[in-house]
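Show me any protein, keeping tokens residue-aligned.
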Amino acid sequence: MSKTPSPATEAAPPRPAVGPDEAAAPASRRRRYALAVLCAASLMIILDGSIVTVALPAIQADLGFSPSGLTWTVNAYMIAFGGLLLLAGRLGDLAGRRRVLLAGLGVFTAASVLCGSAVTPAMLVAARFAQGAGGALASAVSLGIIVTLFTDPGERGRAIGAFAFTGATGAVLGQVLGGLLTDGLGWNWVFFINVPIGAAAIIGVVRLLPDDPGLGLRRGADVLGGVLVTAGSMLTVYTIVQIERSGWASARTLGLAAGAAVLLAAFVARQATAAAPLLPLRTLRVRNVWGANLVQLLTIAAMFGFQILIALHMQQVRGYSATETGLAMLPAAIIIGGLSLGVSARLIGRFGERTVLLAGLVPVLVGYAGLTRLPADGPYAVRLLPVMVLVGGFGLALPALTGLGMSGARDDDAGAVSGLFHTTQQIGAALGVAALSTFVAARADHLRAGGLAEAPALTGGHRLAFTVGTGLLVAAIATALLVLRRVPAGQKG
């Protein structure tokens, strides 16, 4: 007689095996969502750096800024942002990058409310300084989070490409959005728009990013190094932004520059002897790291100068409104976004970062060189649209540059390397605007004295500035060719 198996003894049907790809899928999705949050936070901060420029005339009219005082709505932000980046990056390594990111987003969002609510020039300038401080805390650790979150070379390349997309397009989109908000709702909304984005980013960080305890402040926070680099960086940016008023060779400029040089030299000396340096000098011995930072300094000086000057040319010479100016720059944003978001990572994986960087900089150089013969009038489709298309090559250059700049980062100092990369970016932007604006003013004054009307005189100034910017790009390409090394995908520079 056969025995009927009981439920307890009957073998259960085999469970389907879970492959490694299926097991890794939830973690991969979580990383992608976390990347989206980081990109949104970065986009908000980058937009704020450019969105304000279109609103400056409306801010001046409403709050009663003097012409010289108005520049401090931009300068206060740049000084705080550029001065605190390196310290903020190292603080992320020690105290935890997630905590520093949350603190930065909180400060930035709260300061945005104060900016939009400002009723006096002093209130707006103070709030902009606080915004810059919050932006520095958030920005300095973002790349460090990405390079530790995405360890696979292919995934990391795509993540850096997406992050670079927000940086490359955010500055241009800020012009578009700034024009629409200023003309439609008022200048206050170029700041209020940050509030819902910042709140959503904070929620996303809390829910999606793992809490990292950091190395611990007891590991050795280099307080003296932090004071030196923050003071030196802030004084460097301040020296640059006041050049237009004081002049390059004035006693004031030379004295400030000497003070900044002494502070930064003291910082480097401190890093060579400190037990726990703020910026380990071994990172600067990686050729692709210091080379990429130098290329970035030159490239951003040219590109940020282009962004500001071409917008001024369209409004002051061609009579475009704020909205028309933003829309005229939209083709560059679209091309930059398309290249940096999808195309760049695939090309970098196949040809390497150095090759893709050069491939992106060459069309930018061609477009920039065309502006050296910029006329005061003429149809947009013929005179300006081709330039917008060519500078779209920046969408290839920036992701490659970002990968090279982070190539020497380790898990324990990724924040410091990220802070350094963002610092050179800010100093390049400040230097580009100060230098090119000075050339515009000097040349335009000379042409007016010779009898030219306002529009042709300004155009002459813009041509000279774009000639200088072309020289900066030539220097960037030469540096990339001579200094940067081609590194196979997945290897460090």
About this structure: The radius of gyration is 24 Å. The chain is about 80% helix and 0% strand.
